[in-house]
Amino acid sequence: MNGFEKRANRIKEKILHKTLEMMRTTDPKGIRIADISKAAEVSQVTIYNYFGSKEALLREVFVDYFDKAVRDFEDNMNEGHSLKEKVAHIIDLEKSAYRDFPPGLIKQMLAEDAELARYIEAMYRERTIPLTVRIIREGQASGVISEDVSIENVLAFIQIYMNQYEALLDMADKSADRDKFLEGMVQMFFYGLSGKR
């Protein structure tokens, strides 16, 4: 990569980073290219040259964020951690993701952007499900997950859980300690009411 490409990549990363910061506090519809331009200290023309439109920029922020999260998860999977350590890592990733992209925001973005919806579906099918299946198989091989529980059962349970995640976040916001509430829900999901680990 030559000097020009390195500089271009740094500028693009700065724009993505500043846009993500704005998405944490502002509805995407309220974000303007002028605001991003000011925060990233680049011209509006530069943003349009790199991304083409505000919608394409928001999509790339989302895609870049989740690509990095999946790569982080894949790296963690390959580092020889125990199932418990992998679950702890999943909890941390999940808390970060839902802080940055609450389910309501994700639903809104997917409803308004068919290309992003296709990306998420492909990511789920091609990368997330295989990683989940791998964790289940490793857990069964080590005796941590019962052999009586099928992969299909676990995947169905995950789907049910994720379909209710927005309601869980609402309950978490009303609790005394949001992070502790969410961690308890994820622990219960993985280890049941007995908390056996």
How would the blueprint of this fold be written?
Blueprint: H1 3-25, H2 33-40, H3 44-51, H4 54-77, H5 83-100, H6 103-112, H7 114-141, H8 151-163, H9 165-174, H10 178-191
Describe this structure in words.
- The protein is mostly helical.
- It contains ten helices and no strands.
- It folds into two domains: 1-52, Orthogonal Bundle (Arc Repressor Mutant, subunit A), CATH 1.10.10; 54-191.
- 79% of the residues lie in helices and 0% in strands.
- The protein starts with a helix and ends in a 6-residue tail after the last helix.
- Residues 9-69 form the HTH tetR-type domain.
- Pfam families: TetR_N (PF00440).
- Keywords: DNA-binding.
Helix-strand pattern, N to C?
Answer: HHHHHHHHHH
Return Rg in Å: 19 Å
Shape type: globular
| Helix content, binned percent | over 70%
What is the count of distinct domains? Answer: 2
Question: Which structural category fits the helices and strands?
Answer: mainly alpha
Question: What's the pLDDT, averaged over the residues?
Answer: 85
What is the count of helical runs?
Answer: 10
Give a quick account of the main beta sheet: strands, pairing sense, barrel closure. none
Q: How large is the share of residues in beta strands?
A: under 5%
Spans of at least 5 consecutive residues with low confidence:
none
From the N-terminal CA to the C-terminal CA, the straight-line distance is 47 Å
Number-wise, the strands total: 0
DNA-binding region: 32-51
Domain HTH tetR-type: 9-69
Protein name: TetR/AcrR family transcriptional regulator
Keywords: DNA-binding
